[in-house]
Amino acid sequence: EAEKEIGFFFPPEQTLAVIKPDTQHKEVILDEIRARGFTVSRLKDTVLSREMAEEFYKEHRDEPFFGQLVDYMVRGPCTMLVLTKENAVDEWRAAMGPTDPGEARETAPESLRARFAKDILQNAVHGSSNQTQAHDKIHFIFGDISSENEAVSPALEAEESF
Ligand code: UDP
């Protein structure tokens, strides 16, 4: 009898998502996130300092667009999110669509960037590209939340606490 109670539990994965400044579509994007089955485990609106933005995107520091990217990211509040779902990293990348909204509109017309990005720089949303990045960026933005990971807190509760 008891054996029936024992099953396999695959813990849901987490990713860091950002609604970038100036999107004007924050609420719609949050609705989309939930409609696509993600749990919003943490939510925080933050204006990044230049130092934080540079650190956040340090992997891109040698790219020609790095300066513009940092300027963009510090222009106003970013909505920082921890999204929880099975396969969250890849699912969120798919929900965002390609970096370039022109390409997004061609290949993924339902994606968030196809619908809400202004151009390749101001492309509305960010998402970690792999689990290591997700772990590092969640820690960078939210600190140590590992003790909260077991019980993925209900979205509303998490949002109301900010
Ligand atoms: N970006 C840009 N020009 C480019 C490529 C990227 O301005 O040619 C910006 C854009 O905001 C992008 C961010 O830099 O989201 C990070 O680039 P990445 O290649 O990591 O794209 P992502 O992972 O965000 O799709």
UniProtKB/TrEMBL annotation:
Positions that bind ATP:
K20, F65, R93, T99, R113, N123
Q: What is this protein called?
A: Thioredoxin domain-containing protein 3-like protein
Q: Which family does it belong to?
A: Belongs to the NDK family.
Could you name the domain of life of the organism this protein comes from? Eukaryota
Range within the parent protein:
93 to 254 of 326
This chain's source organism reads Triplophysa tibetana
The UniProt entry annotates the active site at H126 (pros-phosphohistidine intermediate)
Q: List each copy of the Nucleoside diphosphate kinase-like domain by range.
A: 14-149
